[in-house]
Amino acid sequence: MSDWKDRLNVVYSTNPDFKYDTDDEQEEETILKEKQALRISLDKRNRKGKAVTLITGFVGTTEDMEALGKMLKVKCGVGGSAKDGEIIVQGDFRSKILELLQKEGYAKARII
């Protein structure tokens, strides 16, 4: 399969060792749980007054972030999503999520 659509913005390169940067190659590795500085906050903006618990600061692959989000949603028994570098859990579960994250090994997690 040709990947010419991934490099549409590159006009010309005379460098024989030039590598095209695609979105697939820019996926970063997940850092250790102990070094993750997760921030837990309550958010009501643009949600019609409904409160959600927002977990930000996750550094890693989207698969790992989605797995962490799923675990938190299951343990809290509510819905939510994990996208754009944020994990959203419906409802105000700040203290419960902090407790769950600390049990999982995320020592630097804190409520802001």
Automatic annotation (TrEMBL):
One of its GO terms (molecular function) is mRNA binding. Residues 45-105 form the SUI1 domain. It comes from the Bacteria. This is Translation initiation factor 1. The keyword Membrane does not apply. Keywords: Initiation factor, Protein biosynthesis, Translation regulation. Belongs to the SUI1 family. It comes from Dysgonomonas hofstadii. PROSITE patterns: SUI1 (PS50296). One of its GO terms (biological process) is translation reinitiation.
